[in-house]
Amino acid sequence: MNKQMRANRTRAKIHGTSDRPRLSVHFSNLHITAQIIDDDKKATLVYATTVGNKVAGSKTEKATKIGEEIAKKAKTAKINKVVFDRGSKLYAGRMKALADAARKEGLEF
């Protein structure tokens, strides 16, 4: 309940457009998923996940790999700027590692 309220509070301030889509990040117990979404069209533009990939290492290392991968895919889709949607998570640890890796690859947010 509280987690959903925090996510709703964060997303109330964030809206992805075609000029600046939303980068949404989800962490499960085993996998990490990141997607770039255009909320106006209600469409996922770019998607990266560890599901089905043999990414070794800790969850922080996996988050770094996904951050790099989503930034590279965004570049090929000609997306340079995004709005970062952290959901109900704090901007620390894995979330920060993913964001820093995406910024390092050239994604702006």
Brief summary:
The protein is an alpha+beta fold and 109 residues long. It is built from three helices and four strands; from the N terminus they run H-E-E-E-H-E-H. The chain has one domain: Nucleotidyltransferase, domain 5, CATH 3.30.420.100.
Structure description:
With 109 residues, the chain is an alpha+beta fold. It has a single domain, classed as Nucleotidyltransferase, domain 5 (2-Layer Sandwich), CATH 3.30.420.100. 37% of the residues lie in helices and 21% in strands. The protein contains 3 helices and 4 strands, in the order H-E-E-E-H-E-H. Strands 3-2-1-4 form a 4-stranded mixed β-sheet. The longest helix is centred in the middle third of the chain and has 18 residues, at 59-76. It is globular and about 35 Å long. The mean pLDDT is 91.
Keywords:
single chain; 109 residues; alpha+beta; Nucleotidyltransferase, domain 5; four-stranded mixed beta sheet; globular
* Uncertain spans: none
CATH topology: Nucleotidyltransferase, domain 5
Distance between the termini: 29 Å
Beta-strand share of residues: 15-25%
What is the approximate shape? globular
Number of structurally distinct domains = 1
Number of distinct helices: 3
Largest sheet, described in full? 4 strands, mixed
If strands are numbered along the chain, what order do they take across the biggest sheet? 3-2-1-4
CATH class category name: Alpha Beta
Number of strands: 4
Mean pLDDT: 91
Instruction: Estimate percent helicity.
Output: 25-40%
H/E series: HEEEHEH
Structural class: alpha+beta
| Level-2 CATH architecture | 2-Layer Sandwich
Radius of gyration over C-alpha positions, nearest whole angstrom:
13 Å
